Amino acid sequence: MKIAILGTGMVGNALATKLVQFGHQVAMGSRSADSDAGRQWFKSVGGKGQLATFSDAASFGEVIFDCTNGANSLAALRQAGAPNLRGKILIHVSNPLDFSKGMPTLTVCNTDSLGEQVQREFPETRVVKALNTVNCEVMVNPSLVPGDHSLFICGNDETARRKVAGWISEWFGWKSGNIVDLGDITASRGMEMWMAIWLRLFGKLGHPHFNMCLSVGSK
Amino acid sequence: MKIAILGTGMVGNALATKLVQFGHQVAMGSRSADSDAGRQWFKSVGGKGQLATFSDAASFGEVIFDCTNGANSLAALRQAGAPNLRGKILIHVSNPLDFSKGMPTLTVCNTDSLGEQVQREFPETRVVKALNTVNCEVMVNPSLVPGDHSLFICGNDETARRKVAGWISEWFGWKSGNIVDLGDITASRGMEMWMAIWLRLFGKLGHPHFNMCLSVGSK
């Protein structure tokens, strides 16, 4: 499949590398198409992929992963361009984190979320929030965390959610029973606000290889 | 032990009942000391407990559970009175939820939390945020959720956190290995923002008997 990865940071890098290894055609998008991070990635996968602008990557991809820095996510998607995103599934991985003031905080939360902002701005794109609740190494290798553990997804389009859940299973190795569908895109609030306890646990544990498993009793 | 429970709602009721069953002397505090909810609780435990004002309950308790509605938590604690709380451990269970606008939201989050507000207003009280991340039936009966699952606590006083963890184990049956100490009171942010995904899961599952288990891999 032709897949666009927007963002050349750690998250984009991890996902793009795994997708290339899986045999997909991957375009890694950034503002300039020739960022240092992009070129390093390109070299690391032996040239099996391509570097592009946000716009060219989005145009190329049948499916698009938004792995941009949350603070720049909307701006990057505007550069990608609504026509290049129209009708496509956009897997929204970014968290709206602000690291500029010591203890990281969210730039939007509680009554809104970045996932919802993106869906509102690109109403013809099928936004599925996913993967943002775990570290990028865990995203593409869930066995880094022992036992069963949960991955949450949400989005307004049920078919898109089902497709994304299937891809996450197939490409990244998540057991389908561990993928928890939270329904429409407003669940992005909870999935992004999750960052507050995630960052605290990261600080306490000293590494990001952890996650949580949902356990449900009877009514 | 002499224990005060502030708040006669479902949470206060569940904790007070369990503590009476455990053999503690429990004073259930409310604004008026003779609320309907309070009298019902008193009857349900066969009169083994007492009803009191916030102030009398706080004065009576060696340890105090704040189970008031989060929107009224600070006002209730002011009625309880700083001198009655001084030097004591206050186990802060309330969440700052606003149910008045459809989808519940938090009245404080991200850059502050109710736990921190309480600690700032009562600096001589040892505030430990605990139990707020699960439903009240699960609080006092963790076996309602299958397998291991985690309970988070935080607070500025390490000795107080250790004591509270011990009590939660002893009185309510939580395995000590499942109690996760998140450090100082600023972790209340993550523990209260947890509500956003908790409420979503509650809506999805249709009942509150669920929780999450932290699973940690290697560095």
Task: Name the descriptors.
homodimer, 219 residues, alpha/beta, Rossmann fold, 8-stranded mixed sheet, two-stranded antiparallel sheet, 10 helices, 38% helix, globular
Structure, explained:
In chain A, the strands form two sheets. In chain A, strands 3-2-1-4-5-8-9-10 form an eight-stranded mixed β-sheet, with helices on both faces. A two-stranded antiparallel ribbon of chain A has the order 6-7. Chain A starts with a strand and ends with a strand. Chain A is built from ten helices and eleven strands. The first copy, chain A, is globular. Chain A has helices at 10-21, 36-44, 54-60, 73-80, 82-85, 114-121, 136-139, 158-172, 188-193, 195-205; strands at 2-6, 25-30, 50-53, 63-66, 89-92, 97-98, 105-106, 126-130, 151-155, 179-181, 210-216. The first copy, chain A, has 219 residues and is of the alpha/beta class. In chain A, 38% of the residues lie in helices and 21% in strands. At the A-B interface, strand 7, helix 9, helix 10 and strand 11 of A face strand 7, helix 9 and strand 11 of B.
